[in-house]
User: Fold these one by one.
Assistant:
Number 1:
Amino acid sequence: MDNNEDICKKILKFLGQNVSWLEASGPGDDIAICSRVRLARNVSGEPFPIAADQQQRDRIRNSIEDAIRTSSCMTGKVLQFQMDGLTELQRQIFFERRLISAELTGRPQGAALIVASDETHGVMINEEDHLRIQALCPGLQLEKAWQMADRLDNCFAEHLPYAYDSQLGYLTCCPTNVGTGMRASVMLHLPGLLLSGQLSSAMQGIRTLGLAVRGIYGEGTENHGGFFQISNQSTLGESEKMIIDRLHSVISQLIVHEKNSRAMLVEHNKYKLLNHVGRAYGKLRHSYLINFEEALNALSALRIGVDMHMFSSLSVALVNELLVKVSPAHLQLTSGGGLSDDELAVKRAELIRETLKNVEPNR
Amino acid sequence: MLCNNCHKNEATIHIQEVMDGKKKAIHLCASCAAEKSQDQGIGDFNIAQLLYNITEKLDLPGLTEALQGQNKGQPEQPPEAGAPQQAAEPAAETAQPHCSVCGWNSEKLRQTGRLGCPNCYRVFRAILDKAIPNMHRGKTHIGKSPAGNAQNAAPRQMSELMNLQKELEIAIQDERYEDAAKLRDRINHIRQNMEKE
C-alpha cells in the first residue's frame, strides 16, 4: 500500500489535471454541465457492505481488483485509491469531483475507487453496493454515458458472478435501486428559471414525473447558484433505454424553458440581468474574503454572463474549473491544509482574483 | 396554451413523457403542478420510513410486534404471502423474518431501509412485494441481464476463487496450516489460469 506521502503526491498530481467532463464541450453544455450513468452491482452469495465484516469486504475488494487486473475492462491509465488509506479531506476531494458519493467519504472500510485518469469512467468498490460502475460525459450525453457504463458492465459480468434475479433484475442493497441498478443523472445550471421565479414550479413538475431533483452539493443546496442534479427514481419496470430516453426528453424540455426564460429576461428585464452579472463580476474581481456559497452564486452569475457574450475572454470551461477549485476540500488541500474558514475565504478570494485578473467585460 | 388540468390558467410547465414507447405532452400551470406533486406524494421520501409504514399496514403475524422491538430472539421463519387474513390470530407463536445468510432482520431493514445480502430479497419478500410498487414504475425487471453468464467460465472461476478464499480464512483461524497451504496453491493456480485467459 502507498504511504501517506505517496498518496498526497498522487492526489496532487491528480488535482493538477483538468476534469475532462467539465473541460470538453458537449451538446447544450451552457445549461447541461455533465451527464452521468451509474450502475449498482453485487457479487452473488456475499453480504452487502452494510452487513459484511472487514474480512468479507476485503475479499470482495480483492476479487473486483483481480477482475480488473486480469481483464480488459479498464484499459488505459487507471488510478487506484483505497479509501481507508486516505484522510477525510482527501476523500472529500473525490466527492467534490463527483467520483465518489457522500456515503463513501464517511464509511471508508474496505472501500476503494478505481478511476480512469481522465475521470470519464471508474468504479467504486464496497460503497453501498459491492460495485458501482460510473461513466461521465460533458453536456447532455446520457446515451453516450450509458454506452460507456454498459460496456464496462458487460466486461465485469464476464469475470464476476453477479447477484441477479430473473424477476427483480440486479439485486442491490437498497430496494430503490433494484432492477436495472441504474441511476442516470444530469447536472444542470438553471439561473434563468431561478431569476424569473419559475424554478420551484418547474421542479415540482419534474418531481410529478417521478424524477428526483436535488442541489448538486446534496440535500438542501437547491438554491446555491441554480445548480441542480436531476435523475431517475424508478429502476424497476423500465429498461435502461426507456429510463434514459424519458430523462433525456424531460431535460431537453427543461433546457428549452431555461433558454426561453433567459431570452425573456434579456427582452423584458435587461438591466436586472446586467446588474446581476455585473455585481457578481465586481464581487469576484474585488473580494478579499469570500465563502463557498457566495462564490458559487457569483460564479453562477458569471456563467450566465459568458453565455450572454458579456465576456469575450472568458469561457464556460474556465468558470467550471473555478467552481471545482474553490470547493472547500480542493482549496484546503492545494493550500497545504489546516486552514480555518476565514483563512480559506481569503485563499478563495485570492484564487478567484488571480484567475480573473485579465477578464474584462465587453464594452 | 391553457393548463391541461384546470383549463383556466396559462400553462407554464410543459413536460414530455415517454410511456410504453409513446410520447405524451403535459401542459400545466404552476398551481396545478404544485397540487399534483403533493397529491401524488412524489418527491424526496424516507425509504426506511416507507418500509416501516408498509410493514405496519401488512400486519404480518408477529412482524409488527417484531418491528416494535418485541418478540426478539425467535428462530427464522420466512414470511408467506397472503398473510394479512391471518393477522387477527394471536401472534405468540410467530417470529420476525431473519436471513440465515447474513443475519439481517426486519428491525435492521426498518432502521436502514437496506437489505443485508441478495438472499434477503427472498426472506423479506412479503415486505418488499408491498414496498416495491411504491418505489418503482413496475414490478418486473425488463432491462439487461448479465450477458453470457451461464456459458462463460470466468464468473464460475471467480466464484470458486472466492469460496476457496473463505475456506482459507477459516483454515488460518483454525490453525490448520497444512490445509491453508493447499488452499493457497489452489488459489494461485486459478489466478494464474485467469491471467492466461
Number 2:
Amino acid sequence: MTAKPKTMSDVCLLLEGTYPYAAGGVSAWVDQIVRGMPDLTFSLFYLGNQKATKGTPNYELPENVASLSEVFLYDRLSPAEMTPGKTPKEAVQRFYQTLRKFVFGQTDAVRIAMFWELIECLDSTGGTYTFGNLCKDFEAWELQLELYKRLAPTESFIDYFWTTRFLPLPVWHLLSGRHQLPAARVYHSVTTGYAGLIGAVAARKFKAPYLITEHGIYNNERLAEINRAGWIYEAENTVFRYSEGLSVFKRLWVEFFFFLSRVAYGSADLVFALYEGNAKLQMDFGAEPRKIEVLPNGIEPNKFNEALNKRSERMRAGSQKHYIGFIGRVVMIKDVKTLIRAARILIQNVSGSVIQIIGPTNEDREYFDECRAMVSEFGLQEVVLFLGNQNIVKILDQIDVMILTSLSEGLPLVILEAFSAGIPVVATDVGACRELIHGRTAEDQALGPAGIITRVASPLETAAALQRLITKPSLLREMGSAGRQRAERFYTQRALLARYHRVYTDRSWSPMQPTSSTE
Amino acid sequence: MAGIGFELRKILAKPGYLSTFRAFGYAALISSGPWVLSIVSLALLGIVCRGMASATQMELVFASVTYVYALSLILTGPIQMVLTRYAADQYFSHRKGKIFPAIITTLACTSPVSAVIGLILFVGFVPAPLCFQLSSACLFVLVTSIWVMTVALTASKNYHGVLISFLSGYTISFLASFAFTFWMGPSGTMLGMVAGHFALLLMLLRNTFKEIGTLGVRNLEILDYFKKYRHLAFCGLFYNLGIWIDKVLFWFIAPDRKQVAGILYSSPDYDQVVYLSFLTIVPGMAVFLLTLETGFATHYEKFVQQVLGKGTFDQITEAKEGMVTALRTGIAQLIKIQGCVTLLLIIFADRFLPSLGLGAVQGGSFQITTLGVFLLVLFLSQMTILFYLGKLRNAMLCCFIFALINGTVTAWSIFSGEQWYGMGFLVASAAAATITAINVNRHLELLEYDTFTSQNIQG
C-alpha cells in the first residue's frame, strides 16, 4: 500500500493489470477518466501479478488520486500464511460446510450466496484461518477428493490436485486485500475477473454502488488464453474446439473465471460495454440486460482539425497517387498478410496506390520478417512501405483511406482518429467496426456509412473495397464527412466524461442493495 | 494474469524420496550383528583362554569390551542415523562423491571426542595396567569409528565386502587376542582386540575408498543435516539408549551386581541371559529386510510412480493397497519365522541352558527376554516402515517410549525380585511394537493425504 486514504474518495477504481503500470488502451482510458474529472478524488486499487515484476508506473498519478493500493495475486504467501492457524472448531466446521455447499452448488445463485457466506466465515475466524489450513486441513482434502470423484475420476490425480490447489491462491491474495480496500462513494472496476470480484466485495462492504466497464470481454480473453495454455495439463490427443471440448482442468479454470464474472455482474448496478457486440456477450455471460449500457470510447475530434484541413487541401489539389494507411502493430492478430495480398490485387487494377504500414514492427519479429518476405516475393517493395512508429496526429493528413484487417478488435481508437481527420475506413467485421462504420442507433445510422466493412481474411473483398473508395473521390468525401460527424456526435471524450461524471456523482439511479447483507 | 506454471514435477520428484527406509533396519542389524559376534568371540575366547588368564581377568576384558560397545553405540546412534540419511540423499541425487568426505569429516569430529571419553573412562576410572587402559581407550575410538564407517554401506551397497571385513576383522581379533593373552594376559587380550578392530576399520576404509572414495576429505554440509534431521538424531539416540538402559541399570542398581574394576560393573545373572537371547535378533531382521526389499519397497515405488505418473486416484489407492498387502505378508512371515525360533527356544530353554551354565532363574529371564527380542524385531520392522513413510517425528517418539518404559519397568523389576528380570525389556518392546504398529497403520491409511498435502504449493 503506497498511501492510506485519510478520507473517503469519490471513486475507487479497481484495476487488474493496467493503469498505472501497464501501457495500452485500457490504461489510456483510465488516465483519460481520472484527468478528465479534476473535481473528483480517486483511489486506485491495483491488482498485479507479482510484486517483483510490477515494473515502474507508465503514468504519473494526477493530483486527484488520493491513494494507490496494490495487491499481487501470484506472490508467494508468507510462511505465516502457509502455516495452519488455530481456528475455533465451530468456525472451521462452518467454513467447510459452506465450502462444500459452494463447491457442489448446482446453480450460480447458490454458489454466489455461498461465496458471500464464505467471506463471513473467514471474517468470523478473525484471521486465524490461513491458506495453510486450506492446504493441510483434512476436511479440505476430503472435499477435494469428493469433487475429484464426481468431476474427473479418470483423470490424472496429481494434476487435478494441483489445479484445485492453485485455483484459490490468487483469490486468497485478493480476499486478503479486502482489509485494505479504500472507502469510496462508488466502486468501479475496469474489468470483471479478479478486479470484478474485489469490486463486488468492496461495494458490499461499504454499501456503495458498483460499476463495471469492460473494454474487452474478460471471460472471452481468459477462454482464449486457457485454450492456448500449455501449462494446464491435458491428456494427450484431446481434441477441443471451445469450452465443451476443453479438458477437465481447462474447464475448471474457465468455470472459475466465469464464476468471478458472475459474482461481479450480480453485484454490479451498472455494466458498461463499449459496443453492442460486447453488451450481447455480457448478457451471455450472465449480466442482466437491464444493467447493461453501451458507452463507447471517446476522443477529442478537434485535436485532428489540422490534419483534417491539410488533408482536404491535399485531396482537393488531386494527385495520381492514392495513399492507403494501416495503423497498428505488425502482429498476427492484425492480419497484415491479408493486407499485403489485397495490395497485390489492388495494384493490378489501380496504379499509383501506396500502402503505408504505420506502427511498431518489433513485437513479433518473426511475423514481421514473414510479411517483408511476402512483400518482396510479390514485388511490392515500392507499394507496401513499413514506416514503423509515427506521430499519428501528424501523419493522418497523408492518408486517403484507412485500412484495418484485424482478426479481432474491441473498439479501435484508430478508427475514431481516422474519422476525426475525415478519413474513411475499410475494416473487417470484428468488434465494434461495423457499428463504427455504419452507425449504432438509428440516428447514428442516418449519418450514412463512414467506410466499408469486409469479411475477415478476405484479400479480394479488401482490395475491392479499397478500389471502390480510391477510384470514387465523391464517395471518399461523403464517407469521410460522415465519419467526422459520427465522431463529433457520438464518440467524444466530452460525452464519455459527462456520462461517467453523472454516474459517479448523481445518485438518482438507485444502487441495488445486496439481498442478504450481514456485514 | 493467469501465468503461473505448475511445478509438480519439480516439487514431487525430489531426490531421496525413498532414502531413509533401509537406514534403520541395517543400523539395527549392523549394530546388533557385530555386537553379538563380538560377544560370541569373547565367550569363545573365555573358554579357550581359560588356562591362561584367571576368571577375574577375563571378566575385566569382558566388561571393558561390553562398555566399549554399549557406549559407542549410544554415542554414535544419532550420528549413524543422520549420516545414513545424508548418504542416501546424496546417493539418490547422484552426488555420491560427497559421501566419502562427509564420512571423513564426521570421523574427524568423533575420533577426538571418543578418544577423550575413552581415556577419561578407562584411565580415570578403571584400575588396571596402563597398557590395558590405553588399549581399551583405543578400542573405544576404533569401534566408534567402525560404526561411523558402516554408513558407507548405504551408498556402496557392498554388503559382501562389509561382511568379509567383519568376519576377517573378528577372526584377527580372536587370533591376536588368543596369541597376546599368552604373552601378556588381559592387556594382551585387549591389545589383540585393538589389532583386530584396527584391521577391520582399515578394511572398511579401503572398501569405501575403492567404491566411492574421493580426494576431498572435507564436507561441512553434513553439519547442517544434524540441524535439519534432529528427529532422526534423537531417534538413533533413544533407540540405542533403549536397547542398553536395562543392562546399564542392572550394572549400577541391581543388588546382585558385581564390581569388576573401578567403574566397570557387571550383572552376571542378567547380562549373559540377555546377550544370549539377543542372538536371535539377527535371523528376524534379516528375513524382514529381505521381504521389505522385495515386497514393500517395490510396491512403494509403484505407488510413487502412480502419483508422479499421472495415475487416477483409484490407481494410486490400488498401489497403496499393494503396499499394505506386502507389509502384512512381510510381518506375517516375520512372525512365523521369528515366532518359531522364539517358541522353540522358550520351550527347550530348560534343556539347553544348564549346559551353558545358566540356572533356573536365569532360564526364566531368558524366556522373558527372548520373547522381548521377538517383539523388538516387530518394533524394528515397523520402525523401518515409519522411516519409509518419512514419519521421523513419530519414529522418534516411539523410540523415546521404548527407552522410557525399558528404564522404568527395568528399575521396578530389579527391586521386585529376580523372577521379574527381563520384564522391563519385554514390556518396553511390546509397548513400542504396539505403538509403532498403530502409527504405521494410521499413516498408511492417510498415505495419500500425507503424500499430497505435505508438498508445498509454492514449490
